Every structure is written in structure tokens, then in C-alpha cells.
Amino acid sequence: MAAMTIDPNLTLQINTKSQPQQRLVAEEIDGLIRVYKDGHVERPQIVPCVAPSLAPELGVTCSDTIIDTYTNIWARVYVPNANQSKHHHIPLLVYFHGGGFCVGSASWICYHEFLAKLASKANCVVVSVNYRLAPENPLPAAYDDGVKAVNWIAHQVFVKSPQWWTSKCNVSNIFLGGDSAGANIAYNVALRLRPSEIKGLILIQPFFGGEKRTNSEKFMVQPPRSALTVAAADAYWRLSLPAGADRDHPWCNPTVKGAGAGMRDLGILVCVSEMDILKDRNLEFCGGLKASGCRKVEAVVFKDVGHAFQILNKSPVSEIRVHELICHIKSFISR
């Protein structure tokens, strides 16, 4: 079995302009982010950003909307065109993209295509939140943005605002979800909300860590161009955690203080990739949830694929697993 690699068709577009010699690099994740000691941050355009347009045959309407002008939080909304009856309401999934809290966008083409497909196949409204990134905005900025997004959505629904998509949502069927760092955000946002505000969590390869390495972190061989390596994960945590915090901070390692506080009756779907360095960490998290009394935890392991397979790999195996992933999500939100 081969470990997951980023699709070679995604071309790195690295800024090759020479930098002043006095500018020293503090942190760098090759091809993704370079942070200088003077605070300057560069993010090469590794993945194209696209407008909110979709092929008509997909059967999904898409548009961007502003959530907060002061912090520049916005979202991309996907609404399936089927079942547009005035009295038919469908589940709402608030989704957070991955990228180690430091890179990524709701307008990245890989997320645009995946979430459009998810909205269509799972028959749900998807609100993909574009939150503030570290290191300019370290945690808990992304969590704060997530809470603000959920509260904004609830306000739009209950005040019957002119937002074109709110009338199609079932407000008793609101789910939070995301992949990698986005799954971490979804989990930590849920901790900040009242249990009655959401129905469930969909956590795809949640990005957690810890000072003590797991077996999959130590021994899972990752080839060049892997979507996530241990070195990259460590760098993301250094850039995103509060100053002085280590990887046993509860935002990184939720099992330190007991995972899932207040989530006893919340449905939680955790999607784990077999070839991911986070595999053991994800399964440990599921065990921690159950030990804390969470009664509705479902862990699904996807064979022969690695981190971010659903957005960064187009292999035949990945395509099959994406179909399986969407089927699991559809079943979960339809209960």
C-alpha cells in the first residue's frame, strides 16, 4: 500500500523573487508558507482560488457571503437545487477547511469541487467558512471566527433575512464539520456552543497532536510531497498555538484534560485515513470521547488512503474512498 501524496497536477507556484539578505526565515513549510523573523508571511499560490461558479449539470447553486466585515470573515454557500419545495428543509453543514490553521481558503479549487459534490450527493446546504489564519491570527482566532459564523447563520435563519439560502435549511439539523485543522476548529467551536445549538460533528482526519509521538507518527512512512508530515505538523503547531504553549495544550491534544466535555449526547462522526500519520491520534481521540461519556461516537477508517485524500488526490482508490466518505456523511446527517 502506498502512502498518500499530493496530486502532481497541482503545480507549486513559488515566489522566486530575491529577498533582502537581512530578512531571516523563522519557519517554513516548503511550498506552503514562509514566515520571517520580522513577522512578514508569504504563502505561495500552491492551489488555485476560484470564483463561486459551478457547472449547471452538478445541480448546485453557489455564492459567497460576508459574515463579518471587520475581521473579513466570509463564507461560500452551496445549495443543492433538488427538492426546492417551499416546505422541504434540508440539513445544514458548517464546514471549516484544512491547512494547519496557517494556509488554505474556502475558495481553493479542491475544496470548491469537493464541497459542491458533497452538497449535491448528501443533499445538504454547505456553508464553507473562510476564517482568519495563523501566525498573523494565532489560536483561538479561528475558533472565535467559527463561533461567530454559527451565530451569524442562526441569526440569518431566525430573523428571516433576505439571504437566499436560509429558507431551505432545517435549523434543527445543523452540523459542524471540517477536515484536518478544520476538523479541529469544528470540535473546538462545538465546545464553545450550547449542546442544543448543533446536532452533530463530522471530523475528517482531525488535526490533533501531543508531545509524545504515536506509532503512526513515528513509523508511518510518508513520501516526498506528502500532504502532511510530522515536521510540517510540528511547524503548524508552533505557528498557531499561543506563545509558550507546547503540543500538550488542550487545543492541540484534547485528551490531556478529557475529550468531549459536554458532548455526551452529540453525534460525532470521525473519519480516519489508514495511511495518515494522524491515524493513531484520531483513534486515541475517539477513545477519549467514549471514556468521557460520549455515547454517539462513530469512527470510520478509510483503507489505503492518507491525509487529505478527498481533496488532494485523484487516484482511482481515492475516488472510491471519496464516494464512501460522502455516503457515510449522508447517512450520518439523515438520521
Automatic annotation (TrEMBL):
A Pfam family: Abhydrolase_3
Organism: Rehmannia glutinosa
Protein name per UniProt: Alpha/beta hydrolase fold-3 domain-containing protein
Family statement: Belongs to the 'GDXG' lipolytic enzyme family.
Lineage, uppermost ranks: Eukaryota, Viridiplantae, Streptophyta, Embryophyta, Tracheophyta
Record domain Alpha/beta hydrolase fold-3: where: 93-310
InterPro entries cross-referenced by the UniProt entry: AB_hydrolase_3, AB_hydrolase_fold, Carboxylest/Gibb_receptor
Stored Gene3D superfamilies: alpha/beta hydrolase (3.40.50.1820)
